[in-house]
Amino acid sequence: MPGVKGRIDHMDVNLKDRVVYIAALGNNTLEVVSLADGKVLHSIAGLDEPQGVCYIPQTKEVFVANGGSGDCYFYNAANYKKTATVHLSSDADDVRYDSTNQKIYLAYGSGGIAIIDAKNHDEVGNIKLPSHPEGFQIDRRNGLLYVNLPNTGVIGVADLSKLKLVNEWNKNYREGNFPMAFDSEGNKLFIGYRHPATLVVIDTKTGKRISAEELTNDTDDLFYDTRNNRVYASCGGGYINIFQLQGRDHYKQIANVATRNGARTSLLIPPLNLFVVGEPAHSSQAELVIYRIGK
Question: pTM of the predicted model, to two decimals?
Fold first, then answer.
């Protein structure tokens, strides 16, 4: 990704066109990269610390959350023209898209999850939280949302019908819980803590800790691979940590793949059997590194 400087944040994929959208936070751009040939197809400039991004297949739009201004933009995925803006107070961050209900969930500000109607481009709900949220996951089956609150180390549980926080887990355990992955069938949450660097597995039925394994430092993205019962953690300390389920509840690290320092954001793409990592520019230019997932 020539010309891209600074930190790289979250990503999403357009599966039909095999395109990855990358929030180049430090560069104030959104990079559009083809998985077919590795070429940068387009770069949307003039953003303000872009952090979260999602592709909306129903409307063929790309949604970008700007951490600096709080403005969230919709773009036409074909011509990259801006189609709408939703303004939030500040620090628009991580994004999850509920494709079934066509709703975007967005962590933002000093404590909130905004719910945005992807079709009509307007805010339709809000969940108030005690501090700034980071990684979060939607439990559609149980109508819940699990959210990391890293300033206190707490995992918040919100009721999606009531739009309110109803529980807090792992109080006073550790701090710096940033990324989160979810196994809906196994009722497990995977939490990446930074202080100290640990992968913690939580039982969503009880809120209790199942296991804990050492991580490389500075993790920012975490994914659960349903097909292979694996967890992938991209860590700014320069490694991808891969954990495999051993028995019922134990996860063992089976690989430690070297990356560039600061390469802490990634994306698992199960339908394409790919895992991609954003490597920021240091002595060489920024890159999107593509890994094929083995059995």
Answer: 0.96
